[in-house]
């Protein structure tokens, strides 16, 4: 069932965060999105959840309608923001759901504010093997060359719909990605739109991904709640950064109560390719808490 979320803004760690709430019943669910995305990427997943669960999603710093300080961007800041947002909401016993960067963020957030979460569902989180935190990552050309300016969200959708990896996405998710991933360009753009996550911000995030400071295994060791790690199993293209999973294959074993699932037919973009499957994973996770 499609529900229209309520938008608000909160100030955390000196950053204005755009927050979206789907009021409902039962255990709350907090969603954290991937780098270059936005909170509304979860709309199609939330629409497929049974009943009317109480859901929250927020635009990470540098994304969507949230503040966009100049680079550099550090991964630990995203986790600190997730913890602070949970605090502002007064969350207790929530399910944290995170994809990619969002998986890293909600994991650190749960370590920093353990009372807020009763469980975590990590969808192909960018939590690498310990020996890979040597950083920085330098293969940034595909991000810095990303087209920034579009005439409309529809133009962006039509451009992306037939090319990978977007051709494997649910069409509703792709439309949301384009509609909420652009903002009016303002003066000097002639009515055109620009990316809500500027390419230099996204590039800074990728650069810091394997940095020594991004290693959160010490914090993972303190997490005692159930954690389900869902990894992508499909290999698309060795030249494609998202061709294979960035998640450490043995990540689940690093949690006190971790379980591992490998989805052989999915790429890194699990929630985009199958919002229905993602909703079922969330439903199952809630049932176990």
Overview of the molecule:
The protein is an alpha/beta fold and 289 residues long. It has a single domain, classed as Rossmann fold, CATH 3.40.50.1820. 30% of the residues lie in helices and 21% in strands. The chain is built from ten helices and eleven strands. The protein has helices spanning 43-47, 75-89, 101-112, 141-144, 153-160, 171-180, 199-208, 217-220, 270-273, 275-288; strands at 6-12, 15-22, 25-32, 53-58, 94-99, 117-123, 149-150, 182-184, 193-195, 227-232, 258-263. The chain has an eight-stranded mixed sheet, sandwiched between helices. A three-stranded antiparallel sheet has the order 7-9-8. Strand 1 (6-12) and strand 2 (15-22) form a beta hairpin. Helix 2 (75-89) crosses helix 3.
